[in-house]
Amino acid sequence: MTHASANGAPEGAPLDKDKRNWIVATAAVGGIGAVATAVPFVSTFQPSEKAKAAGAAVEVDISGVKPGEKITVEWRGKPVWIVKRTPEQLAELPKLDSQLADPKSERKPSELTPEYARNEGRSIKPEVFVAVGICTHLGCSPSDKFQPGAVGGMQSDWGGGFLCPCHGSTFDMAGRVFKNKPAPDNLEVPPHMYLSDTRLLIGEDKKA
Fold this sequence. Notes:
Order of helices and strands: HHEEEHHEEEEEE
Number of strands: 9
Radius of gyration: 16 Å
Shape: globular
């Protein structure tokens, strides 16, 4: 069996530069806005290279993810974010509808938002947000901008979310794109389901 290194690539294989840019797990503390150091790619539950090519689901233990933190795993060659939102971040979501291009996730629902995620938080559990970390404009990977306010070039009324560094599209903490931005759609919510309170399965959402 092929073993994956901490960055998700087979041991000894060169890592594509573009892939390296988004295969990075980050943790950001939303309540105080402090950004933790980058943590290794979650590889414990990674399938084999052959299974990944076939689109195999990825099982993830989220028991160690604290409120305000994000981890990233790989599914079908894409970065998938798992964010544990704080009560403050959740409270901000209903206030943003008038500023968003698609607040109710009505665009391309079959592609971007499973039925169980067509709610304010675009999630099964309010506090846990799962999304594909690829901008819907030209495929760049947005950066975390969890700290509210005018920090890191954001506007003073920024409530926390994500910023695409390529062309400036901004998304809230539910991956909903703001109006008048290059990105046409919200971030994709992949199929997922809970195997237990602390274990997620990314890539499947129907029990056998």
